[in-house]
Amino acid sequence: MSSNDDHILATLKILIIGESGVGKSSLLLRFTDDRFDVEMAATIGVDFKVKQLTIDGNRVKLAIWDTAGQERFRTLTPGYYRGAQGAILVYDVCNRDSFRQLDRWIAELDTFSTKMNIIKMLVGNKIDQEDKREVTRDEGARFARKHSMLFIEASARTREGVQIAFEELVEKIIQTPLLWENEQKSKENTVQPHDNENSNEGAQGCYC
Q1: Which of 39, 74, 84, 208 is deepest in the core (most CB within 10 A)?
Q2: What SS3 class is residue 175?
């Protein structure tokens, strides 16, 4: 372990969930590498990236898990949710069905999450395609309030809202010490299947 880790407040496991095609992998790539790949294919199985972030003077290491939205990969579910302190639920503002499916994703999160006070962030992605919008911002905000979630609209293509979505989620987790303090003290983090200490460039995973 590098000496830099001595100054890390916590290692947090963050999930990105939602229907296939809503832009989960694109949001992850924009946040970790500041890139957008217009030809990015659907995730097969699970992708995993590590990034360090400083919030209010506290440095944390994020292990961010992005899973396939297709039903045939759902056998991954229980282990995927285990130990997560935060979850980003993504829908496509241009696809009302992806918004309708959020209830199912929340039910799954509540079923398999091992932390009852997991912090949830709702992200309406693809706002750069305003002419194709099917879900209003107000609808997203109302849904988030109903389920006690943070909320933001974003565009992985233009960067808008992406950084702040992760920052606000992490800030709320830090403000909820019961989510992470005990695990830090015992060093029993369950977030590093092939962790690379070079944070931003570690654990590139597979986008194919």
Answers
A1: 84
A2: coil
